[in-house]
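The freezer alarm interrupted the setup, so I double-checked each line after restarting. Inputs confirmed:
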Amino acid sequence: MNIRGVFIEDTFAEAFTMRVARIVITGRTLRWAREAALKLTGFATSVIGCKVEAGIERELPEGETPDGRPGISVLLMTMSKDDMPKRLIERIGQTVLTCPTTACYDGLPHAPDRVGVGSALRFFGDGFQASKVIGGERFWRIPVMEGEFLVQEKFGMQKGVGGGNFLILARSAEAALEAAEAGATAMSSRPGVILPFPGGVVRSGSKVGSRRIKSMIASTNDAFCPTLRAVTTSSLPSEVNSVLEIVINGVDAEAIGAAMRAGIDAACRNGVVAITAGNYGGKLGPHHFHLRKIMGSEEKA
Amino acid sequence: MTQGLVARLKSLPAARADFSEVLATSWVGTPAGELARRRVHLDGRSSVALGDLCEVKGEPAGRIRFEGDFSRVDRLAAGLTEGEVVVDGSVGRDAGAGMAGGSLEIMGDAGSGAGGAAPEARRGMTGGELVVHGSVGSEAGRRMRRGLVVIGRDAGADAGFEMIAGSAIILGSATGEVGIWSKRGSIVALGAVKIPITYRYACTYEPAYLRVMLRRLRTRYSLPLEDRQLAGRYRRYSGDLADLGRGEILAWSAE
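Predicted 3D structure, all chains:
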């Protein structure tokens, strides 16, 4: 299968079930909502080292937020249900509570699992906090030097999918980067997905474990490192000199599949040799995103 | 979707009618015929079936609409725990007194004691929403512990008297002082209000929760709330300092 001359390998991305929460941050202006969201989603690329994976889902216009102010929607994902409460409390507490003008709301009101967030953060109020029930939902008003921080008592949590991916195999680093930027741009702001890595792009794809150190969970994916072509069992065609990966997490497999379709299509451009995907033989993750199935079986002009 | 039950008043009762037993126990799944058999007390001396005063019809769907002039009906929806109750016109005393859940929306005025407590009760409302589009008499929200009382126009004397907690929002003017002996209650005044001497000014700010609350009320009940009230600045007074002092009056600054 080829798309505009780019070979689509007959393989699949293997993804895992994770737990996801959607955090809605509002501010007096979009700038302040974004400032909080950027801090909240900082250092959240991979559960391997960051314990969470998080990213900005999209901007929310005033009409879509509980308080009618501009907002940012963030998805935060953990590997287990038990991890979620602590991660939400520490991140919202350190990055949104501290940020001028912001308020913080649950973005998954219909999710059956509810995680106490405001109910824990309220103790920062040192006994001066107060709560209000609005439309059946409890909100906490925590006094701060600026005025009041408003945070919802409970946040919804549901199953999500993490680890959707595709790899861009290009003739040059420039071509790989341009294609990755185009792919990430096409996928960003799509409801239900986030790209947790910097700019949505990963240059250091990993394999499970290590050749030399048994305690390492992951190490460089040498089969896709162009500099190692001569000294390892390479998976790269001879004309490939740079590889970049895009990792996609989402609220469900459908959202990830739709985002991958848009991203791969945008990444198929001059200088790109092939698109492939990372998997573990299908034995670890229950979600398999077959590239050719996602892109349709017909050749594209 | 069915419109739920409708109770249409046949004629103005000759005596004051006490509706406190009509909706105080579970009713959202009760057929019209069965609801019509619930008792209504007349002037505290005799009782009749609801069906003798109102034509009750429709299918149960968690909603009931009272049609007619209920200004001589007291304690309508007192002790309500569930469902949506709408009254097309005005009601008498103690509407929604001791509510614990559900919503009571009165399109006209309400008499004294709306959302309040029975004289012998230690607590008034413990939950739910009472929205009066018109004015209310004295002692609205008396001793309320939780829940929300919204007054679309003016409030009579002593609104929020002995509030334990909960919220009372007054869109019009408040007669006399509000929130006397309040422990943790919130009173939001969008019109003229006299701050009791036992309240102390704290600051002028934009309470984030009011944006959420007022925005919801505007959408849910079509209340005439303006954007400048949702996003406005409010003077915060803490009190009642003669009691616990954890309550507040938020007075819209109209800036």
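Quick read of the result. The longest helix of chain B spans residues 208-221.
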